[in-house]
Design a protein that fits this description.
GO molecular function: magnesium ion binding; nucleic acid binding; RNA-DNA hybrid ribonuclease activity
Strand order of the largest sheet: 3-2-1-4-5
Distance between the termini: 44 Å
Largest sheet: 5 strands, mixed
Structural class: alpha/beta
CATH superfamily of one domain: Ribonuclease H-like superfamily/Ribonuclease H
Family: Belongs to the RNase H family.
Number of strands: 5
Order of helices and strands: EEEHEHHEH
Helix content: 25-40%
CATH topology of one domain: Nucleotidyltransferase, domain 5
Radius of gyration: 15 Å
Subcellular location: Cytoplasm
Strand content: 25-35%
Shape: globular
Number of helices: 4
Function: Endonuclease that specifically degrades the RNA of RNA-DNA hybrids.
EC number: 3.1.26.4
CATH architecture of one domain: 2-Layer Sandwich
Length: 154
């Protein structure tokens, strides 16, 4: 990995779901220079796409100041959604090209509201391909799943 500027934050995100829908988790690894922060959480009944979105939302929300942010995701849904589809969904009143409601519009609206707060660039990485930070984000997402499972009554 190339040396990163200390003025740039990298956020590596991932979502996980055991059953789809099912128990899900999200993970985000934030890196600013040599400083790292790990975030994770989950939901009892959710989908993988919702957890992928939640990971990005939580990563951005964790930033205290405006900065340059490189977001890395293995979710084509998130990457294309934010860079290609979002503008048209909004123009059509949160409808898809075939006039159906946008799935997960609550999370897309939350992410959309966060976009102007940071200087964001979006990067897709292949999942489960030995990308170190993506593997760490996956571990965090699975930790989020386990947190929810541990709360369930026996």
């Amino acid at each position: 990995m190339s040396k990163q500027s200390n003025k740039t934050v990298q956020i590596y995100t991932d979502g996980a779901c055991k059953g789809n829908p099912g128990v899900g988790g999200w993970g985000a690894l934030l890196r600013y220079g040599s400083v790292e922060k790990e975030l994770c959480g989950g939901a009892e009944l959710t989908t993988n796409n919702r957890m992928e979105l939640q990971a990005v939302i939580e990563g951005i929300k964790a930033l205290k100041n405006r900065c340059t942010v490189e977001v890395y995701t293995d979710s084509v849904y998130v990457q294309k959604g934010v860079t290609e589809w979002l503008v048209n969904w909004k123009a059509r009143g949160w409808k898809t090209a075939d006039k159906k409601p946008v799935k997960n519009d609550d999370l897309w609206r939350e992410l959309d509201a966060l976009l102007p707060t940071q200087d964001l660039s979006w990067h897709w990485v292949k999942g489960h391909a030995e990308h170190v930070e993506n593997e760490r984000a996956d571990e965090l997402a699975n930790r989020g799943v386990q947190m929810i499972k541990d709360k369930e009554p026996s």
